[in-house]
Design brief:
Length: 158
């Protein structure tokens, strides 16, 4: 099954400020990944091209890394073939868009895994990550509520 999954969020800050957060990914001061609610993201050699890592059962390697984004290639689960990318784009001098995009093809049981479990958890995780970035620049903490299915899955996976 062909999968294209895109999340976008506008942040009321210049790209120079938002791009600095990319450097914190997978560090103890991670300002993007919502490790407070989800398995932490880790890479064996840090955030650099060729480094392998992931979070939970999802594994990938970094195939591109620059000031405007990081691209990862799936290693597992078996049947996930493709990439996902975390990118930032300047909308104008004081507004930046963060984008997370999966482009992959799933095969066999990975298709069911995506449709029933991973897609739902992934969408909630990315919204939590975007909430974390938005909250970084705000006095108000942004929280996107989980839908019922995500709450059930999170309960089952504890």
């Amino acid at each position: 099954m062909r999968v294209v999954n895109i999340h976008r969020r506008k942040i009321n800050e210049p790209i120079e400020k938002v791009s600095c957060l990319l450097k914190t990914l997978s560090t103890k001061d991670d300002a993007i990944w919502p490790y407070e609610q989800w398995p932490a993201i880790r890479f064996e050699d840090g955030i650099k091209v060729g480094s392998k890592g992931g979070h939970g059962r999802i594994r990938y390697k970094i195939i591109d890394n620059n000031n405007q984004g990081i691209t990862f290639q799936f290693i597992s689960p078996e049947g996930f073939v493709g990439t996902h990318q975390l990118a930032i784009n300047s909308i104008h001098e004081n507004k930046t868009e963060i984008i997370h995009e999966i482009k992959m093809t799933t095969y066999k049981k990975a298709t069911l895994l995506w449709l029933i479990v991973i897609r739902w958890l992934h969408d909630a995780l990315i919204e939590d990550a975007f909430d974390k970035v938005e909250s970084y620049y705000s006095l108000e903490k942004k929280i996107t509520p989980y839908n019922l299915w995500v709450r059930v899955l999170r309960f089952l996976y504890k």
